[in-house]
Fold EAL domain-containing protein.
Amino acid sequence: KSKQAGKNRFQFYARDMQSDALARLQLEADLRIALERQAFSLHYQPIVEADSGELVGAEALIRWIHPERGPVSPLEFIPVAEDSGLIIGIGEWALREAARQSRQWRDGGHAALRLAVNMSGVQFREAGLPDLVGEVLAEFGIDRGGLMVEITESVLMGGSESMESRMRAIKALGIGYALDDFGTGFSSLSYLKRFPVDVVKIDRSFVAGCPDDRNDAHLVEAIINMAHSLGLQVTAEGVETAEQVAFLRELGCDFLQGYLIGKPLPAEGFEGMLEQHFLLPAAHKRPRWRNR
Ligand code: C2E
Ligand code: MG
Ligand code: MG
Ligand code: MG
C-alpha cells in the first residue's frame, strides 16, 4: 500500500512538473507572437535629484498585456525571454522604443531628461550589441548622456573579457551604466572598479527598512559612502515614505526613485510629471551652525 502511495506521489510531482514546463512553453510561444506583433509597451518611472526634487530622468519598464491573462509581470516573462533567446528581440524593441520616446521628449523641450533602459546579460553575449546601440542612437539623434543602461550585478559576475569590452564600446558611445538591485547579488567591490559603472542603485529591499531597521539603515549608509568614495553616484529605489526621503538626503544619496515620487506610467501619463518638473519639495538647507 505504501508503495502505491509513493507511486501516486511521484505521479503527482511528475504531472506538476509537466504542467510547469507546459506553462513555460505556452508563455514562450505567446511571447514570440507578442514580439512579432510588437505587443509590448514601456512605462516610465521618474527619477529625481534628491536635494532639489527635480525630475532628471526616468526608468523605462516593459509592460505586456497578455490577450487572455491580462498584464503579466516582467518578473515572470523576462526570465522566459532570457532562456528562449527572445530577450534579444524584446531588448532591441525596448531600446529603440526608449530612444524614440527620448527624441520626442527632447524635441518637446526636455533636453536634459535621461532615460534608463534595462538590459539583460544575455544581450551582452551578442557581439553585435555595440553596433546595434550605435545605430539606434544615430537613428534618433540621441546625444551623450541621453540614455543609460541598467544591468544587474549578476551580469558583471559572469562577465567575460568580451563582455567587458562590449560594455566599454557602448560606454564610448556616450551611454552611462547603472548597477541595478545593488546589494542583492554576490558582486564584490572589485566589480565596481573593473567595470565602467557610473551609478549604483540600492535595491528597494534595503530602502524598505529605512530608517527604522538598523541593519538596513547601516547597510544603505555604507553603500552610499562606498560608492561616493569610488566616484560613483547613488540612486535609492523603492522610496515610499517621507521619512525615507529625509534619511536618504541626510546620507547624501544623489537620486531617488519610488512610488512616493511617482509610479511607472505610460508615456502620456509621465508627461504630466514632465510638466510639473519638481516632484518633491526641496530639502530644507539647514543653517551651517547646526552642522558643526
Ligand atoms: P528593476 O529594474 O529593479 O525595476 C524596478 C521595479 O521596482 C519595477 O518593477 C518598479 O515598478 C518597481 N518599483 C519602483 N518603485 C517601487 C516602490 O516604491 N515600491 C515597490 N514595491 N516597487 C517599486 P517592474 O516594472 O515590475 O519590473 C520588474 C523587473 O523587471 C525590473 O526590476 C527589471 O529587472 C525587469 N525589467 C523591466 N523592464 C525590463 C526590460 O525592458 N528589459 C529587461 N531585461 N528587464 C526588464
Ligand atoms: Mg532597473
Ligand atoms: Mg532596480
Ligand atoms: Mg529591482
User: Anything to note?
Assistant: The pocket of magnesium ion (ligand 2) is lined by residues 59, 118, 150, 180 (CB under 6 Å). Strands lie at 40-49, 55-66, 70-72, 114-118, 147-152, 176-182, 199-202, 233-236, 255-256, 265-266. The CA atoms of residues 284 and 290 lie 12 Å apart.
